[in-house]
Amino acid sequence: MRILVVEDEERIADFVNRGLGSAGYEVELAQDGQTALEKIHAVDYDLVILDLMLPDMDGLAVLEKARNRKVSPPVLILSAKGEVDDRVTGLEKGADDYLVKPFAFVELLARVRALIRRGQPSVEKLVIGDLTLDCIRRKVSRGGDSIDLAPKEFSILEYLMRNRGRPLSRTMIVEHVWDMEYDGLTNIVDVYIRHLRSKIDDKYPTKLIHTVRGIGYMLDTTAKTVEPGER
């Protein structure tokens, strides 16, 4: 997931950048409104974290211009302006959430996760090759065969399919599916991936779930880069 952080205070920008990076997100920074707008119009971000007091323009002006795009990302305002009127104005101008400085990073991370989940497109069915996932009825089939998945297996598979061709780290999978921080020790993702492979890959000639060396996992019909001894 790609996040744009618009913040001119270097200390805060670095703090947010390092924290979100450790949580598995791809972060880009902008220190002023004009740079932020150029980036927003050039890149499809999954979320924008926006300070209101920027050196060249009011953050609300950035928000308004960002909302003029046909498809605009969710926006989380992160500002020292914490009066009720400020928060109400930010939300009325189109922000999806508002967090007041100073803030606890765990709260910022929780709000980021919630906004990104909310911003994911609603699709009734996901289809890759002969694998079909029905998001509404929560059913999975491959090659016409119905496949029974446990709730967490279904959530992991849906996350992989929504990000087809994109390597997802174990951190990203844990934080998306379990909504918890990854401690770097648990092998819970690897266990569930083995379960998924046994159900959707083992009996079929084309393997869809691939281990991406040094990163995590990816679902695609053409992936080639895998760990030795793994599909």
Task: Summarize this structure as a short list of keywords or feature phrases.
231 residues; alpha/beta; Rossmann fold; Arc Repressor Mutant, subunit A; five-stranded parallel beta sheet; four-stranded antiparallel beta sheet; 8 helices; 38% helix
Question: What level of helicity do the residues show?
Answer: 25-40%
Number of DSSP strands? 12
**pLDDT average, as an integer?**
86
Q: What low-confidence regions span 5 or more consecutive residues with pLDDT below 50?
A: 225-231
CATH class of the largest domain: Alpha Beta
Query: Secondary-structure element sequence?
Result: EHEHEHEHEHEEEEHEHHEE
What is CATH's topology name of the largest domain? Rossmann fold
Number of helices: 8
Structural class, by secondary structure, is: alpha/beta
List the domain count as a whole number.
2
Walk me through the structure.
By secondary structure, the chain is of the alpha/beta class. The protein folds into 2 domains: 2-119, 3-Layer(aba) Sandwich (Rossmann fold); 125-219, Winged helix-like DNA-binding domain superfamily/Winged helix DNA-binding domain (Arc Repressor Mutant, subunit A, Orthogonal Bundle). Helix content is 38%, strand content 21%. It is built from 8 helices and 12 strands. The protein has helices at residues 10-22, 33-42, 59-66, 84-92, 105-119, 151-162, 170-177, 188-200; strands at 2-6, 26-30, 47-50, 75-79, 97-100, 125-128, 131-134, 139-142, 145-147, 168-169, 209-212, 216-219. The strands form 3 sheets. The protein has a 5-stranded parallel beta sheet, with helices on both faces. The chain has a 4-stranded antiparallel beta sheet with strand order 6-7-8-9, covered by helices on one side. Strands 10-12-11 form a 3-stranded antiparallel beta sheet. Strand 1 (2-6), helix 1 (10-22) and strand 2 form a beta-alpha-beta unit. The longest helix has 15 residues, at 105-119. The protein is elongated, with a radius of gyration of 20 Å. The relative contact order is 0.10. The model is unreliable at 225-231 (pLDDT under 50).
